[in-house]
Structure formats: structure tokens, C-alpha cells
Amino acid sequence: MTESNPWAAQWFKAQQQFVDAWTDMAKSGASNNPTGQSDLWAQSFDMWRKASGAQTQPDIQQALNKCMDMGKEYFTMAEQISKSLSQGKQPIEAINQWMEQLKQSLQQFSGMPGFDGRGVNDFMQQWFSPTQSWQQMASALTPMNQAAWQMPGMNTSAFNLGEMVDPLGRLLEAPGVGYFREPQEKQQKGIQLALEYHEANNAFNQAFLRVALESIQGFQARLLKLGTDEAPRSLRAIYDLWVEVSEEHYAEFAMSEEYQSLYGEMVNRLMIMKKHYNEITNDLLLAMNLPNTREVDTMQERLQQIRRENIAMKKELGEIRSMLGQLTPKSTARQSAPAVTQSAAEAKQSAPAARKKAVEPAKSKASSKPAPATPAKTAAKPAIASAPVKKAVAKKTVAKQKSAVTKASTGA
Amino acid sequence: MSNIPFRSDQVVEEIVQFNQNLSKGVKNLLEAEEISAGVTPREEVYAEDKLKLYRYQPSTGVVQNRVPTLIVYALVNRPYMTDIQENRSTIRGLLDSGQDVYLIDWGYPDRADKYLTLDDYINGYIDRCVDVMRKRHGVDKINILGICQGGVFSLCYSTLHQDKVKNLVTMVTPVDCKTPDNMLSHWVQKMDIDAIVDAMGNLPGEMLNWTFLNLKPFQLMGQKYVSMVDIISDEKNVKNFMRMEKWIFDSPDQAGEAFRQFIKDFYQQNKLVEGGLKIGEHSVELKDLKLPILNIFAEQDHLVPPASSKVLGKLVGTKDYTELSFPGGHIGIYVSGKAQATVTPAISEWLNKRS
Lengths: 412, 355
Description:
The structure holds two protein chains of two kinds. Chain A is built from 17 helices and no strands.
């Protein structure tokens, strides 16, 4: 793999340079900071990642990407802290300085419409992985909505931003007129629903931003509270403590009424919008004389119901065959009424046993085909065919047995 | 605290070491073979729609329990978690201790399965698998081991079909879905499930993934990958890590109607506890459940808090109820070495005594 991929070779070379630079720094008592090397590391990796994407299994590529993303964030933290340390600061001051930088990087986004975590300091990206992954997922789930946003004349960014919303809102309230009144109204409603979703999404993201800022203060407070024995003794220990504190702040937020409402509102708004655009799509498909999801859904629902009935009938048929199979050829051959009565009584008595045997699956592979079905079938068929008078009575008997079976299976 | 005892050169050494491990790990990842799922030999004995019923090859030289055991796994993840690797396989452990193990693989539902209901799953698919096993083994009753959501299905099934179930084992099964520490439940309370199913048809697996990962985003989406760097310089660790990674992101879509009922009845209305649960035409009352039950829960379970499972003991009508508490999490209960040494043997011992 390495030989076949020149970018990989370049990246490994850059890795070596990076390691050498850090090692030199360690030897020289941390008088220099290898920021340039760190950037080289990230750049060469990005190039390698783009180039190697098609050559790696998707599972591996995904893990690799995550591993490298986290590596970058971890290096960013190391870089910031070691920079301060090399300037002669105490570790606690270095960490606090790093925290203040993180705080500043977040504060600039406070109140910014459309904020979803993009653009924040690399290290704090972790706080916004829920909002960013939500954004990606929501886009993937609403292709029609995305297409609508990208229609000529649609200024997507404007719809996200506060100043434009009110005039747009008034425009959307304008009544539809003429022959295309209904489609126009549906489009207007779609845009209105999209705005409502974006508003809910923005509220969710802003709440995350607030809690992320609180978590930074929480981390600083935690550091101050720690006793000497509990103090982090390595970069990894600092990182792990940061994860612990962040997770605590997040969990508190995630279990709050506020989160429940914001999240519920965001999901519901997205779904209402999606449903509406599904309807618009269905109308378009109908106009083009193409099958739409409404029709497919109807067929699927009917088909599922028919399948249920089919399975139930197969099961009953199996039970009937099994019960008929217990009737001896001798007794089934009799034509007289007393013989039928006797047969019915026998069948009634053997109902629970019959049920035990009637375990035929609806559709089974050759290896598990129920063996008793065949003899039961052959034994029952001639008896029914040769005794037309008895058939009606047998039907009655079966009905009684069926009733017993149903009671037993429902526990009634 | 004003004194943190580490120096600049320590930071440098640490980062150099981290980078070296990362380089080795990346090489190992690039050279990793395709990850296979499931390790124990098995045969398909029944199939219907996307469902497959597998029987695992029994261990040789072991006295076998004559009552076979059916594992009913959740719909929300893939069942190979129970057989993830040779030395960490719940299924292998059960076979080695004499159980005859079957497992339902639900497959990956698509739009054609949208109208599958809980009734179809429980009184349909599970019931037919149970019948296949009863017939194959010539027994009236089998044992059932239900896992997570599969445990909920198993409770419903066993209550409705007690004539076909000898013993029931539930593992990390949510019963009371409204305990105060249940984050998943907290999140869905204000969600309009009808709007979701009406808009989406089936619930996409990636939405489930998003939900599960965001229960602990810093650990599951960040710290895990930083810690991974420590171990991936060893090829074997890369394989094990990738198996878990594959499983975590392998979430099937959920059949719309079944999902609608599951979330509304269990998570929003908590009907297993509050009452009023119906599967198809049939009411499910846990107090009617009279067969032997072994209920296993994980003490650090972030998906199904222990209190959510433990309440089962108070709700069922059986006099033969046993609880087993495992000191670990929702996944560790299948894959950790500790679970292999304690949980699996305990299940077998409990089943053997009652079969």
C-alpha cells in the first residue's frame, strides 16, 4: 500500500521530519516551538487522505479519518500548551492561557445565525461534533429541500440570517393567485417550514455554544479544585480530564428540559418540512405520470396485509392437515352419520395434540421442511375426495377444532 | 491548585511518542485485511423475508442441554456482537458449556418492510422460528435469551406463548423506560414519532447511530480515537478495534411501523410498566409471566440503566426469578473477558438446572 501510494510515502516522510523537530526541541530544552512542522504534519496528512481515499476499505478509511482528526486536535492542544511553557509560563498558566484562547474562539460565534460549529478552534470541534453530524445527516435526509434551496434565485445563506427572515416571511404570506395557486402555496409553505426548521436548528446550536463555553469555565474550576495528588501529570491526563469535564457538562445539558425541548423541536421541524417536500415531490411525479411514494405505500400496506392473511391461512391449513392426518383411513372411509360423529369426537379429543404437531413454518428451506406434512396431505386428500357427504361435516369439525386452537394460542 | 507537576520537555516527549505510535498505527490500518463479522461456524436452518435463523455448530465432547436456546437480538444493531471474535464470543461460551444455540438475524429492513409491526415481529417471525426449533428438536418448549430490545420482544413473546417457552433469559433489557437516568428516553419524550415515521418511512440507521454516539460524544467520538493510537501499533489490536468499529456503525434501518409502536408504547408511554400494552390483538401483562426468568443487567450501562432492567423482578408473576448484576457496560457484557468468565457460564448453569 505504502509503495503504491506516493502520498503515503510523502506523509511518512513528513512524519519523520515532525518527530525529528519535536525531538530536537526536547533536546534543546524546549526553546523553540515547531509550529511549522506541526502544520506540515497536518497538510501532508490532508493531501495523503484525499489521495488515498479510493484505495482504502471504507471501514478502515472512516476509522483512519477519525483517528487523524483527533490526532490533529490533540496536537493542537500540545502545541498551544508547549508554546506557553517554552515562554517560561507555569503549567497551570499555560493551560489557562490555552483555555482563554478556546473561550475567545467560541465567543465570536455567540448569537451568530447559522452557526453549527464550523470555524471554531480545532480542539473545540469536539463540542460541535453532534451539531455538525446532525447537519450532515439532515442534509442527506432532505434532498428535495436542498434542491429547493438551490433553485435559481434562492439565496440560501439569506434564509438562515435574521435580517432577511422578516421580509421573506411577509413575502411568503402573500396569497397565491391564478391557475397555479395551489402549487405556489405549497412552495411558499415549504420555504416557511424550512425557515422554521433552520430557526430550531439554530437555537439548538446556540445552546451547544453556550454550554461549551460553560464547560471551559468548568474545566478551569476543576483544575483549581484538584489536590496535588490528583493533578494531571501528562498531556494525556489533561486531555482525559478535559473529556471528563466536558462529558459531565454535556450530560447535564442533555438531561435538561431545555435540551429535550430544543432537540424535540429541531427533529419535529425537520420531519414536518421533509413530509411537506415529500408531498410536493409526489405531486410532481403524479403530474409526470410516474409512480409516487403515496401509491407505493398503499401497495406495500395492502401487500403486507395479504401476507399476514396468507401466513395465517397456511398455518391453519397445516393444522387442518395435521388433524386430518390423525384420522385413520378406516374411519375416514366410512360414509354413515354415526361414523362421522365418532370421527368428530376423536378429532375434538386430539385437538391439543394436533396443535403440538402443527408447527409448520410459513416458508421454510429444504433442510427444515416439516416432515409430517406430506403423509398428512396424502392421507387426508383421498378421504375428502371419496366422501363428499362427509366433507361438510368434516368442515364443521375442523371449525370446532380451529376454535379450540385459536383459544389455546391466544391464551383465552 | 497552582502546581501541575509536568514540564515542557515531558510534553515534547509525549507528543513524539504519540506521533510515532500514530505512524505505526496508520501503517497497520492501511494494511489491515477486510474485517469479518461473526466467527463461530453456523448453518442457516430457516429463512423468511430478510430474517434468517441460524444454528451454531455445537461444541464436541460437551454434554448438551436437550432444550435448545434461541437468541433474540435487538433490531437496532447487528447480532454479531454476540460472536465478535474467538476469545470474546458469548455464543462460543454458551456452546462450550453445553447449550444448543440458535440466533435470529433480522437482516436489513428496507422500504418493502415499512409496514412490519411489532405483532409481525413477535407473534409472526419469532413464533415461527420457535416452531421450527420445537419441531427440529421434538420438544414442546425452548429456552429464549433476549438481548436489549430483543429482550423486550422476548418478554412480550414469552408472556403470550408460555406454552412454548421453558426458560427466559433477558440481558440488558429496558423494562421501565422512564427511569430518571435514561437519556435516550429523555430525548424522545417530545419527539413527534408519527411525524418521523410519516416523513421517513423507515427510520434510517444513521439517525440511530447519531443518537447512540451522542449519548457520550466526547468519549465515543473523540477520546476513543486518541486512545486508539496507544494500541494500534499492534496488528491484532487493529483488527479487534476495527471489528468493534464496524459493529458500532452497522445500524440497520428500522421498519417504520414497528419503530413507531416501539417508541410510543415503550419509551413514551412506558406500557410494560404502566400497563395497556397490546401486541396485535393480544394484551401483554408481565404479571402473567410465570416461567423461570434470569435477568442480567450491566451496572455501567449508559443505554439501558440498571434500574430500567431491575424493575422486572417486581412486575413478573413467576416465583423463579433470578438477577445477575455485571460490573461493566452495555457492550462489555458480551465482549469483555470478565463477561466471558462470569456471565456466560452463569447463564448456562442457570439453564442447565432448569432444562
